[in-house]
């Protein structure tokens, strides 16, 4: 449990870690989807190649797009790219850096899918069983071309009646699987070498510029997050003020219409804000629906701690409509 | 349990991850629902198509509507749309933004259901087994059967135990063919959905970023304002109820003293705070009368601003007033 918590906290620690976490999850998801998928080769002459290659290449495209969608930084990069220049210059190096890092992370899940597919072998067997040279295999050497094609296209289906106990089928299957796994391991090796070289040789080229671009790309990301948080906080305060202002204006209106002067007590009745009647409450709720207050809290009343209203202290000319004289009533 | 709590904490840490979390949960729920569903093809000529397409299309519709029903923001959108203008203008861009984000979220579970159904293959196999190209896959002229009979035989393909057309077309061949078509359709659908989602998400910063920022802020504002108003009203109702009930007990206590002509038994003087809380009701009979009165005759929803010594609070007796003037100098 502790370990789980540590892993979670590590991944939340900064946005790069979050993105790495999402990338890892997507890679795991791609393996899981592959294992859950019920691969059933059609074992028909022209359909095999379409199906096999389709299963090998279409899901990686979908996974790549998912990787781009789920990555928050892709939106940040696009906004930075398309924004008007304004007072802040645009640095193309930063945008390029962000684009590269996004693409690298999005390519992990498709690469995992392709490698797993090749190492498993079923896709390649399905796609290329019809392209194998029948003369190399004993069982197919004597058949006519059309028959050989027909039989070869049934090789991927182990349970097929014709091919169930055929040793030639197993031979073709092993041959294709061997090729498939060789291809899979080679691709994996090439990818790992490429990544290794990229990381190892990067410091040899322009490390200072790299540090700068990385710093500024992080900065843009953090700035956007903080802007969103500040907007949320601001809208909460705005709403709070707006509602208080609304209750105040309702209380004033009620006072104007009813001529009694209720005593303002501290404590519970202060919280009632002068609304102490079923009709008054109904009126308040109706006003809230029919006439929402304007989005303007610049005329907020200042409240004395005991709940009595006082005018704001006189200030030179900037108090606007506030009168300098006010009345108070005591019981 | 701890794991769930941590997952929830992580998801709630910011708006974006919360939304992604909700989407992920809905997708998983939809996939789980499909695997729990017991698919039973009827294996009869016209029923197959109806059943197969029904399972493919009706649950997504239900899930889509459910996505709207379970979304709290639907009532917020409706309220904002239908409210009278009053002193606050209505912004169509905000309404559009709210509607679009709700539709996007509601589309996830149906899309996952359709994808999983197509990738699994049982639905399409059931629905389209009677439309198989028998000439290409099997031997149509084998028994010279009439069209109706051929359809009846083909309709039993999904039900392996009762399938009797092995010479017409092998069951495995037919199932493989139909499943291949179904999976191809499924992956194409998945690709289409992810492409659409990608386009929607990536074209927005290129064209309407300023409008988007505005709409997002104000839709969030409307949501928060509504919640804060509800909270304020709840607090007001609590205070209202407290004062109303206090006044009821006080009124009750005074009435009893007035009508029963015996002073209430005084609580012991050293009880202090506890005796104040008793509000003058200190014996069995009095309490019973109070409870009966609460049931039979609830007090009006009108708090009287009473002084502690007046016998009834409304209308208030005229009060002495003192007026203070503040100089603005």
TrEMBL record, chain A:
Chief subcellular location: membrane
Record's subcellular location: Membrane
GO molecular function: monoatomic cation channel activity; voltage-gated monoatomic ion channel activity
PANTHER family membership: CALCIUM HOMEOSTASIS MODULATOR PROTEIN, CALCIUM HOMEOSTASIS MODULATOR PROTEIN 3
Family (UniProt): Belongs to the CALHM family.
Keyword Ion transport listed: yes
Protein name from the UniProt record: Calcium homeostasis modulator 3
Any Pfam family hit: Ca_hom_mod
CC annotations in GO: basolateral plasma membrane; plasma membrane
Record-level GO BP terms: ATP export; protein heterooligomerization; sensory perception of taste
Residues passing through the membrane, by range: 49-71, 92-115, 182-202
Source domain of life: Eukaryota
UniProt entry keywords in alphabetical sequence: Ion channel, Ion transport, Membrane, Transmembrane, Transmembrane helix, Transport
Membrane topology note: Multi-pass membrane protein
Region span, Disordered: 304-331
InterPro entries the record matches: CALHM
UniProtKB/TrEMBL annotation, chain B:
Cellular location(s): Membrane
Protein's UniProt keywords contain Nucleotide-binding: no
A single cellular component GO annotation: membrane
InterPro entries tied to this protein: CALHM (IPR029569)
Similarity comment: Belongs to the CALHM family.
PANTHER family the record matches: CALCIUM HOMEOSTASIS MODULATOR PROTEIN, CALCIUM HOMEOSTASIS MODULATOR PROTEIN 1
Residue spans crossing the bilayer: 21-37, 49-70, 184-203
Keyword terms, alphabetized: Ion channel, Ion transport, Membrane, Transmembrane, Transmembrane helix, Transport
Major site of localization recorded for this protein: membrane
Annotated protein name in UniProt: Calcium homeostasis modulator 1
Any single GO BP term: ATP export
Membrane topology of this protein: Multi-pass membrane protein
Superkingdom per UniProt: Eukaryota
């Amino acid at each position: 449990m502790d370990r789980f918590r540590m892993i979670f906290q590590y991944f939340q620690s900064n946005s790069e870690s979050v993105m790495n976490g999402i990338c890892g999850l997507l890679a795991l998801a791609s393996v899981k989807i592959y294992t859950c998928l019920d691969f059933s080769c059609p074992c028909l002459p022209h359909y095999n190649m379409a199906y096999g290659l389709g299963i090998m290449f279409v899901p990686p495209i979908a996974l790549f797009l998912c990787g781009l969608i789920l990555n928050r930084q892709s939106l940040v990069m696009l906004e930075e790219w398309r924004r008007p220049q304004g007072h802040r210059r645009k640095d193309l190096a930063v945008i390029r850096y962000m684009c590269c890092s996004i693409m690298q992370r999005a390519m992990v899940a498709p690469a995992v899918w392709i490698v797993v597919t090749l190492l498993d072998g079923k896709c390649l067997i399905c796609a290329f069983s019809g392209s194998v040279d029948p003369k190399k295999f004993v069982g197919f050497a004597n058949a006519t071309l059309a028959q050989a094609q027909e039989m070869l296209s049934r090789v991927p289906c182990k349970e097929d009646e014709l091919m169930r106990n055929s040793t030639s089928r197993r031979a073709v299957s092993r041959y294709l699987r061997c090729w498939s796994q060789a291809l899979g391991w080679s691709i994996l090796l090439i990818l790992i070498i490429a990544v290794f070289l990229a990381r190892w040789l990067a410091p040899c080229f322009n490390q200072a510029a790299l540090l700068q671009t990385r710093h500024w790309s992080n900065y843009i990301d953090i700035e956007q997050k903080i802007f969103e948080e500040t907007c949320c906080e601001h809208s909460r305060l705005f709403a709070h003020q707006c509602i208080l202002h609304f209750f105040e204006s309702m209380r004033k209106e009620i006072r104007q219409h009813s001529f009694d002067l209720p005593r303002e007590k501290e404590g519970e009745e202060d919280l009632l804000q002068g609304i102490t009647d079923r009709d008054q409450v109904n009126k308040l709720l109706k006003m809230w629906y029919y006439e929402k207050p304007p989005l303007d809290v610049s005329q907020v009343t200042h409240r004395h701690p005991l709940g009595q209203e006082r005018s704001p202290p006189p200030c030179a000319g900037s108090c606007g409509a506030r009168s300098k004289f006010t009345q108070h009533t005591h019981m | 349990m701890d794991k769930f709590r941590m997952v929830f904490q992580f998801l709630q840490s910011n708006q974006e991850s919360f939304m992604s979390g909700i989407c992920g949960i809905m997708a998983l729920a939809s996939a789980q629902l499909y695997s729990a569903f017991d698919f039973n093809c009827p294996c009869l000529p016209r029923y197959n198509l109806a059943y197969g397409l029904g399972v493919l299309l009706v649950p997504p519709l239900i899930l889509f509507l459910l996505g709207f029903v379970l979304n709290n923001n639907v009532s917020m959108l409706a309220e904002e749309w239908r409210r009278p203008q009053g002193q606050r203008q209505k912004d169509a861009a905000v309404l559009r933004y709210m509607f679009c984000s709700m539709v996007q979220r509601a589309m996830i579970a149906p899309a996952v259901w359709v994808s999983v159904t197509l990738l699994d293959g049982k639905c399409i196999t059931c629905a389209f087994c009677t439309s198989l190209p028998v000439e290409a896959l099997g031997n149509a002229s084998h028994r010279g059967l009439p069209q109706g009979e051929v359809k009846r035989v083909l309709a039993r393909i999904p039900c392996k135990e009762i399938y009797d057309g092995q010479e017409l077309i092998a069951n495995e061949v037919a199932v493989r063919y139909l499943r291949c078509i179904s999976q191809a359709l499924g992956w194409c659908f998945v690709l289409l959905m992810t492409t659409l989602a990608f386009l929607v998400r990536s074209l927005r910063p290129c064209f309407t970023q300023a409008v988007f920022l505005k709409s997002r802020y104000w839709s969030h504002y409307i949501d928060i304002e509504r919640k804060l108003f509800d909270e304020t009203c709840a607090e007001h109702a609590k205070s209202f109820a407290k004062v109303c009930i206090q006044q009821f007990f006080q009124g009750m206590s005074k009435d009893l003293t007035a009508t029963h002509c015996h002073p209430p038994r005084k609580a012991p003087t050293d009880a202090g705070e506890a005796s104040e809380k008793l509000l003058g009701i200190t014996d069995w009979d009095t309490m019973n009368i109070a409870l009966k009165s609460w049931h039979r005759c609830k007090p009006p929803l009108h708090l009287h601003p009473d002084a502690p010594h007046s016998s009834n609070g409304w209308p208030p007796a005229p009060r002495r007033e003192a007026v203070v003037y503040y100089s603005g100098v």
